[in-house]
Amino acid sequence: MITIVLTNRNRDSRLIKRCLKSLENQSNTDFHCVIVDYGSSEKQLKDLEIFIKDFKHINLISCETSEQLWCKSRAINIALQSCNTSYFFVGDIDMIYHPDFIETLNQYQTKADATYFQVGFLSEEESKKEKVFNEFEINFKSTREATGMTLYNTNVLKHINGYDEFYHGWGSEDTDVHIRLKNANKQVFYYEKSVLILHQWHPKIYRSTSSLEPFHSKLETINQKYLEFTKRSGNTKANQNQNWGYYKPEDYKKLKGVEVVFNITNELSEVKGLLSNLLMYSSNKVVSISVKKHPEYKSIKHVAKKVLDKKVKTFLDMQEVNDLLLECIILNFRNAPYQYNFDSSSQNISLIIKL
């Protein structure tokens, strides 16, 4: 039997319904599907919970991570940790699957340790149409470099500690898995005999400028560089210093009881001091951190002192503070329950985290 995992955060319900309908209409129904909702808004989650009841093969795992960085790897690993089927397929919730897709998975499950599938991309206009699978006109097809839609031997994927949860934001986590499998001398097969998966067009808007959700300005670039070192190192196992696929809902209820408060500014020494302190903090307490602009930041007095080459305080701009805090979380506290907001209009940062 095969488990299919689909991850979601605030995806258009029209796309989701079409995806789930394509799975519900499979010629082979011997599969189990898990949707891991990783931080959708309250309204989006309620809508998903309502219409998912119409699909008998679907199980929903909801994570209270709306005020956290998106982490597809962790969402996948949450489902992987509880998977008790021999095979595990990682798909996307904006796809349409051919009626014989599950049947094909069963035919290819023993061909390799991992089998990934070519995807046909639909245009915006074509995505709006209601058609049977084979009548859609494909705009273009993915290549071997697109590694997202993959069927794994579950034990093999668990042996390499699943997906690397360093990857936050978007990109590189699926390629990383394939590289580590090859580093471990596992067989990876590319299926391109026919197109069995169609990608529905949608705008690439994951965070509006007015959003308070965590956002790191350079994460995609960092992910790509991290991936390069995985290639060069020959690494096979991820998450060796962190529990992977970790999520306990009860941990998040504790965030309401703040025990320690830090109010700092964007002065470099304060930010560095705080980050260094957090790395040694093991009190098991809920900590609230607020960062605001220092009164002297970009003041006339400060600028004048710099012009006169006098000793002045060193400041970071708030985006730099934001990025440093988020990097600290990714590297050291990504399993910790936290809530993070960065208001770019007021230039205020707030973080509540259970250390």
Description:
- The chain is of the alpha/beta class.
- It folds into two domains: 2-233, Alpha-Beta Complex (Spore Coat Polysaccharide Biosynthesis Protein SpsA, Chain A); 249-354, Translation Initiation Factor IF3.
- The protein is 33% helix and 21% strand.
- It contains twelve helices and 15 strands.
- The chain has helices at residues 13-24, 42-51, 72-81, 101-108, 124-127, 154-159, 173-183, 219-233, 249-253, 268-279, 300-307, 318-332; strands at 2-8, 31-38, 58-63, 87-92, 95-97, 114-117, 120-121, 140-141, 150-153, 188-191, 197-199, 260-265, 286-292, 338-343, 348-354.
- It has a seven-stranded mixed β-sheet with strand order 3-2-1-4-9-6-10, with helices on both faces. The chain has a four-stranded mixed β-sheet with strand order 5-11-7-8. A four-stranded mixed β-sheet has the order 12-13-15-14, covered by helices on one side.
- α7 packs parallel to α8.
- The longest helix has 15 residues, at 219-233.
- It is elongated.
Rg, Å, rounded = 23 Å
Derived from helix and strand composition plus strand pairing, the structural class reads alpha/beta
Topology-level CATH name of the largest domain: Spore Coat Polysaccharide Biosynthesis Protein SpsA, Chain A
Question: What is the level-2 CATH architecture name of the largest domain?
Answer: Alpha-Beta Complex
The largest pleated sheet is described as: 7 strands, mixed
In terms of DSSP E residues, the strand content is 15-25%
Please provide the ordered H/E string of secondary-structure elements: EHEHEHEEHEEHEEHHEEHHEHEHHEE
Mean pLDDT: 93
Number of strands: 15
- Provide the CATH superfamily of the largest domain: Spore Coat Polysaccharide Biosynthesis Protein SpsA, Chain A
**SS summary, helix count:** 12
The strand order across the widest sheet is 3-2-1-4-9-6-10
Q: Specify the helix fraction band.
A: 25-40%
Question: Which descriptor suits the 3D outline?
Answer: elongated
Q: So what's the CATH class of the largest domain? A: Alpha Beta
End-to-end separation: 39 Å
Runs with pLDDT <50, length 5+? Answer: none
Number of domains: 2
